[in-house]
Amino acid sequence: MSDQDTTPTPSPAPPIPTGTPPKVTNRGRAAGPADSANSETSDFPEYEYFVQPGPRGFPPLTEYLDILDVDMMKRRDESNKMDHHTMLYNSDYLIVRRGQEFQVNINFNRPYKPAEDKFALEFVIGSSPHFSKGTYIPVFPTKERQSSWEGRIINTFGNVVTMGITPAANCIVGKYHMYVGVVTPYGIRRTRRESSRDLYILFNPWVAEDAVFLGDESEREECVMTEMGIIYHGSYDDIAERDWNYGQFNFGILDACLYIMDRAEMPITNRGDPIKIVRVASAMLNSRDDDGGVLVGNWSGDYTYGVAPTSWTGSTDILLTYSSSKMPVCYAQCWVYAAVFNTFLRCLGIPSRVVTNYFSAHDNDGNLKTDIILDENGRIDRNRTRDSIWNYHCWNECYMSRPDLPAGFGGWQVVDATPQETSDGMYRCGPASVQAIKHGQICFPFDAAFVFAEINSDVVFYSRSKDGTMAPVKVNRTHVGRLILTKSPGNVTRRDITDQYKFSEGTTEERTVLEKAEEYGCKREKSSPPVADVDVVLPNLEIGVGTNFEMNIEFINNSDQQRTVDAYISGSVVYYTGVTGTEFLFLTPRVTIDPKANVRELVVVESKSYMKRLVEQANLHFIVTGKIRETGQIITAMKVVTLQNPKLIVRVSSGGKVNEEMIVSVEFTNPFSFSLEGVYIRMEGPGMMAPKSRYYSLITGGSSLTWTEYFTPERAGTSRVIATLDCPALRQVYGQASVTIKP
Amino acid sequence: MSDQDTTPTPSPAPPIPTGTPPKVTNRGRAAGPADSANSETSDFPEYEYFVQPGPRGFPPLTEYLDILDVDMMKRRDESNKMDHHTMLYNSDYLIVRRGQEFQVNINFNRPYKPAEDKFALEFVIGSSPHFSKGTYIPVFPTKERQSSWEGRIINTFGNVVTMGITPAANCIVGKYHMYVGVVTPYGIRRTRRESSRDLYILFNPWVAEDAVFLGDESEREECVMTEMGIIYHGSYDDIAERDWNYGQFNFGILDACLYIMDRAEMPITNRGDPIKIVRVASAMLNSRDDDGGVLVGNWSGDYTYGVAPTSWTGSTDILLTYSSSKMPVCYAQCWVYAAVFNTFLRCLGIPSRVVTNYFSAHDNDGNLKTDIILDENGRIDRNRTRDSIWNYHCWNECYMSRPDLPAGFGGWQVVDATPQETSDGMYRCGPASVQAIKHGQICFPFDAAFVFAEINSDVVFYSRSKDGTMAPVKVNRTHVGRLILTKSPGNVTRRDITDQYKFSEGTTEERTVLEKAEEYGCKREKSSPPVADVDVVLPNLEIGVGTNFEMNIEFINNSDQQRTVDAYISGSVVYYTGVTGTEFLFLTPRVTIDPKANVRELVVVESKSYMKRLVEQANLHFIVTGKIRETGQIITAMKVVTLQNPKLIVRVSSGGKVNEEMIVSVEFTNPFSFSLEGVYIRMEGPGMMAPKSRYYSLITGGSSLTWTEYFTPERAGTSRVIATLDCPALRQVYGQASVTIKP
Q1: Which of A133, A405, A424 sits opposite B279 (nearest CB)?
Q2: Hey, CA dihedral for B327, B332, B334, B339, is it positive or negative?
Q3: Which residues of B646-673 are buried (b: 16+ CB within 10 A; e: fewer)?
């Protein structure tokens, strides 16, 4: 190496700055900023010249046609909102649906002359409107110059032109601004941006060209227009109902729904596609760590830092809190996720409903097996059994075409916002075609295999030997996905839609479907252990919470020899997720049954044994297992008993009329001998009363209370006032009253 | 309301604590903790009794067969690592592949008696091993008791038993622990946990039962066993090569790859499925905000807070930095993501290769259109054109069966870890079947439609009129996805694999595929604007960076009338992403061409005009557009010129032998008149030299340097030493030298 001055010499490298590196810019990566916030806007100039300025500056465009005023015709009783089924939205803006004409009036400074005047309505959305991206759409009154949106002059009267505009049936859904621009030879003069000319364009289930078109009027009425719903819960044997106010038309809800997409940084250009919107929302409705989602899940029973999931009466509070605080709302369980998702979907105009699946296999990762481990004596091994059958699980169905899939998979699609343990490490699910699930075509996106397993898993009982190996001793192929319910359109009864998801048990079609699913990687239990010749049956029970009760367990010997069963009878309190809390009862009777005979084993349960240990939603879970001495066979039976809670009594004054004050009262009596502490009562009624709540620090045993409120109904029709009572010792106490309001 | 003392009275609700709510526990939601960290372990007891303790405590299990020692036979030259193709891993542990037998020796305290002694090898992985989850696997030496793994006694010699174990071909991949347990009538006595009995089980492309089986030996050798690769870049007309040391066998890399899955909280039970592993990794290799991914993307040119993407020579530094700091590594661009992903895949035993697609349509969200907007005069409107054709883009292919899809879609799968603007708002892509992409079957997961658009988009030139409407004037259907390259197996030449992704242009098959893709929602430009009768052609150029050059632009008049073109000739510096930097040249000649004649327009480019403005990777982008006066037709031509950088000269001393010291020198001369500042030089060579770097604060114009290092090769064979030089003013200066090491 030479030693000249110019020879470069190495030196210690400068330290790389430590700490979190600064946010990297988009420079070099993309030509423009991402357009992913509907709340961001760009301003078009009032004067836009085509020509270079002359010696005396720009020509005065004011010589041409001038726009004095624009009327968006946005009152609830005007034809736009009536024709577009948007009259219920509590909003100051025009709200219309795509693929269908709406009207605006433009007042010029003189009569419009088609031969010489040239003007356009310009619709823009997002921060960087581009024609080729569908975020800038000029609409002309003449046929010659058309874009994907159609325009026509409906009427001229004096200086006023009535323009009809038909947005494309696949246009972006969200909040637009409308400019009116007059085109001159020198440039464009246009209206200044003013919020009165903002408008919302929604999905349109009423037009055949829209991807969310739904032909059935009664379903459309229910799944788009209805605010008050019923969500089914409880257990398969003992179905319970929960009223819910979706509140999709309440003030601020539509903006909150658009905010959810903004918060997800969903590109504006994707927001015309219902498939993409529901997929983003299914991820965004749940919040995990600090990802900014809407609802924090909590199944722990400790809700100190928020509202107990059982305490909510509707979605309004949740969505408005989220959009104003911009923080996740505490807390949710599955029906809260499904209910708020339903509000989101109906608010945007995507037909949707909440469905409940009884005995839902969870966290299953697409495997068709749920394992219950018994020891060599037939007793359940709780350490080795990872519960994953929920007593029930709620998800949503939304209605849309699926152009991304082969023909036949449009229609109802499952979406689910409840955070689950998915293979992707992502908390989202769907849209999965219900038709694809029913036919085992689970190779198609999104997450059809996961939903298929939720309704079709086998429950496999294993016997574990001392050296750690396990052998299947019983396979129950009918337990999971026993019943799928949703509310009937137009009334308050339940509708069994199990047959939309599954062919009947035992049919050829059912077997074919399961084989098809196995082709796509679903694993089933292949073994068929011999069926024991003794059955054990647990009775159906309706038990009020806090009462003592008896239970007759029946052992049926189907063989023609005597049988002796070493039985294990276990009673536990259980979460609706199927997760077991404390065991409060454990018996080990030996039962001897004569050939072809029955024996009943009486079990007495005292309220004091379970009351102190009750967890969420007051379920008791009884498992009977046992080993038949003569044959070594294992027998099993399971039953979830939902304890009946006391009720709230809701009374509404009679003779309701729009804009006339009414009275509602909520009554409650503590039926227990102990006091209830930290009690919240909430009530609300769509179109009548915003959510209200009251707090009682103490309700002593046996005491009663009455809460009276005044309210003024805003619109006519039949609706309901719903109320909940919730405290750590007693969850999900409900009451409701129907109200008919005359115009 | 009564006023008795017991009547509950409402009171203000207690405030909900503000601030971030505490992390919600899993209680009520799941019975056990999620098992999603391979690094977490659980300890089995040394003595596990089946019986209750008697009056004198537990019986002394020490009377039975005792285990003195276990030999995992894990030396590189022992049969396990040789047979399982894992001899190259620099690791102290046994590393084997699934679906194939390996051996261990167990030294008992006396000869093993099959008739009376009973023992098992117990393999465990994760923090809560369960038989039914495949995370606890007992393996017995006898045929009677078998689980999904097979065991047999290969040999007994004195007190030593040689056991053969064949893990299931679909077992979980990761780090296991092996216990040896002796089963007695009273309980199990087993070895204490000790890290020497840890072992890694990997994917096995050599056995037909494994989902990643690859039959071709030369491809297996390349795509699993080869550490040194070539990644193609540059431009379609001027392909450049980049050497890369994947380093999948280097010390610590396998643990780093497992850490990536742990960091993603990927459930252990999913880690036997290559589909799920590659999908998780495609998300996890990029870091967005604070999600803990491996690499931070940066295309901005400012790399103050990390290492310039062009400066890396291999994956080792990146993965070891990530696994030790547990922080994202700065910075990456597409080839860095693809290269590190390739290391991850090869390290776990999934066959993989890096491919390069020239003219890759990006951020396209599955639409088959890239729009370029011209004004009414035919000049490009840069404000309205959102560039989204990358000069090239790199992704990975990995080889596996696809049991989740219909037959025919196994084989090579596209995965891509470069963060893209996807509809999901998620930065992940694939696995997408190459066969499905080729046949337009883009309805199948994952992200096939997205990859299809990257190689099949149309480029549409629009002319924008003054009132904002646009009309297509030219559609180029062949520009995008022009060429797809990967390295040939076994040598250093390139292999054109375009035909694996696309049928030939103009064939019936090609048209059918595009129609099929349209059925699944891909949108194409339908219009076919008339082709102009004047062509414009830009020449191919090989230009050294910093030189002046001339360019002859040819205008060809195909008509039999005179044509006059008002042309716009624009030269810009451009990122490899296609994003345009500064325009350094702009000419507006009027060109008159006789009927059926050519005219050449000479353009002179001086180095001073572009040198100061050069951005990443030294590309110049020339666009010629224009309008034919006589017909109003628009003509266009584009060309990317990759400037040739100076080279590093790498020299290695001759006569290399394993474990004998050698010398390597890197020489560089600054060919410019200006100084280079802040210069890093890096070099490394697989099996010879770990990554090293040197920093020079200043290299004056015209000066030379030589960097000399000593190294000691660890293994025989042919390899390369590669070097890079990188500074803000000059990126991607490379050099390399081949080395043959004798044993």
Answers
A1: A424
A2: negative
A3: bbbebebeeebeeeeebebebbbebebe
Instruction: Answer left, alpha or beta for residue B434, where phi above 0 means left and psi between -120 and 50 means alpha.
Output: alpha
Q: Please answer whether residues B385 and B373 qualify as being in contact, where contact means their C-beta atoms are separated by less than 8 angstroms.
A: yes
Q: Does residue A556 have a pLDDT over 60?
A: yes
A226 vs A72: CA distance, rounded Å: 26
Distance of alpha carbon B16 from alpha carbon A196, whole angstroms: 38
pTM: 0.91
Note whether B619 and B392 are within 8 A (CB).
no
> pLDDT per residue over A697-743, tens digit each?
999 999 999 999 999 998 888 889 999 999 888 888 999 999 999 98
Separation in Å, CA of B508 to nearest CA in chain A: 22
Give the tokens for residue A468. Answer: 């750690």
pLDDT tens figures, B394-446: 999 999 999 999 999 999 999 999 987 654 556 788 999 999 999 999 999 99
Q: A622 near A570, Cβ under 8 Å? A: yes
Region B716-734: what's the mean pLDDT? Answer: 89
CA B715 to CA B687: how far, in whole Å?
6
Which residue type occupies A248?
A: Q
Q: Would you state the pLDDT for residue B580?
A: 78
Is A405 in contact with B520 (Cβ distance < 8 A)?
A: yes
φ/ψ region of B112 (left if φ > 0, alpha if ψ in -120 to 50, else beta) reads beta
Chain A hits for B131, Cβ within 8 Å = 384, 464, 468-470
With H, G, I as helix, E, B as strand and everything else as coil, classify residue A12. coil
Cβ-nearest to B580 among A31, A138, A140: A31
> What's the CA gap between B524 and A132, in Å, rounded?
13
Mapping DSSP to helix (H, G, I), strand (E, B) and coil, where does residue B606 land? coil
Asked whether B235 and B123 are in contact (CB, 8 A), the reply is no
Distance, CA of B628 to CA of B634 (rounded, Å): 6
Phi, psi of B113 (to 5 degrees): -115, 105
Q: Give tens-digit pLDDT for B354-403.
A: 999 999 987 655 566 777 888 877 788 877 776 678 889 999 999 999 99
The per-residue DSSP string of A275-310 comes to HHHHHHHHHHTEE-TTS--SEEE--SS--TTS--GG
The arrangement of strands across the sheet holding A295-297 comes to A286-287, A295-297, A329-332
- Go through chain B and tell me how many residues it has: 743
Nearest CA in chain A to B27: A300
Place of tokens 């044509």: B563
At B391 the three-state DSSP class reads strand
CA–CA separation, A116 vs A94, rounded Å? 30
Q: Is A3 a catalytic residue?
A: no
Is the distance from CB of A29 to CB of B299 less than 8 angstroms?
Answer: yes
Among A393, A398, A439, A727, the active-site one is A393
What element of type H or E holds B303?
none
Question: Reduced to 3 states, what is the DSSP secondary structure of residue B513?
Answer: helix
Token pair 């694999």 is at which residue? Answer: B497
> Alpha-carbon distance A665 to A658, whole Å?
19
Half-sphere exposure of B586 (CA within 13 A, CB side): 5
ipTM at complex level: 0.87
Of residues A317 and B608, the one with the higher pLDDT is A317
Could you tell me the two tokens for B198? Answer: 């840890």
Q: B530 at the A interface (CB within 8 A)?
A: no
Cis peptide bond prior to B711, omega within 30° of 0: no
- pLDDT tens-digit readout, A329-366: 999 999 999 999 999 999 999 999 999 999 998 765 55
Closest residue of A to B25, CA-based? A300
Closest CA to A487 of A497, A478, A498, A477: A497
- Backbone conformation region of residue A19, classed left if phi is above 0, alpha if psi is from -120 to 50, else beta: left
Q: Which residues pair with A231 in a beta bridge?
A: A242
User: Which residue type is seen at A247?
Assistant: G
Tokens of A609: 């044994």
